[in-house]
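User: Ribosomal RNA small subunit methyltransferase E, Halobacillus alkaliphilus:
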Amino acid sequence: MQRYFVEGSSWENEHLWITGEDVHHISRVMRMDKGDKLIGIHPELGPAICKILEVTSNHVECCVEEWLEENRELPVQVSIVQSLGKGDKLEQVVQKGTELGAYSFIPYQAERSVAKWDDKKTAKKIQRLQKIAKEASEQSERIRIPEIHSLLSFQELIHLTNEYDWCILAHAEEARRKSFRPLASMLEMIKPHHRVLVIFGPEGGFSEKEVSELVNAGFLTVRLGPRILRMETAPLYFLSTLSYHFEELRK
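Assistant: Predicted structure for Ribosomal RNA small subunit methyltransferase E:
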């Protein structure tokens, strides 16, 4: 059944009104009409099976038939801090990372970032990433959309450490060392409901200065396996491992 996130202000007395681009998707793409059913997702109450009462050019009115008890969210809140990359790499991270359960995404400008965003480009990029996160959340049947933060400088993200239980630095150099902290040992310390901030570098990796500042700020370095991963692969490795550890091994 097709799913749509509907903001809280559009719900009233077991009725909801879907507006915006989703109207076109419901009426033109899915060819749904009065009497058809869909799943509407309330930002606080979660998903509900809803029957369509009316379809117009600017809204779809529905009524709730049944509230669903389901939760496909990771038991750990993981914020992915990802440097800017070439092409659509950041879009790939947001799309696939959303499917894998990321709680939020924080783009930042690293010292070796090839891509550069000006103010005008930043607004458009964030809007685009928000749309990707919404569509990926609907596709993967999540009950919340990951937040896409505004672009941060490296120094700004350093100040986020106090908001999290764990701050992790996914450093490629850990794969080359004989002595390292494996991700498995890190996962044993993380508990359900913990907030985790994990930072990934650009194509050229972190500079020595950035690594030093992150470690001094309290970030713990971890190894993501013995191989060197691409910028867009590393966050997905981390999230997949986390999902397996908390959602499959512990069942």
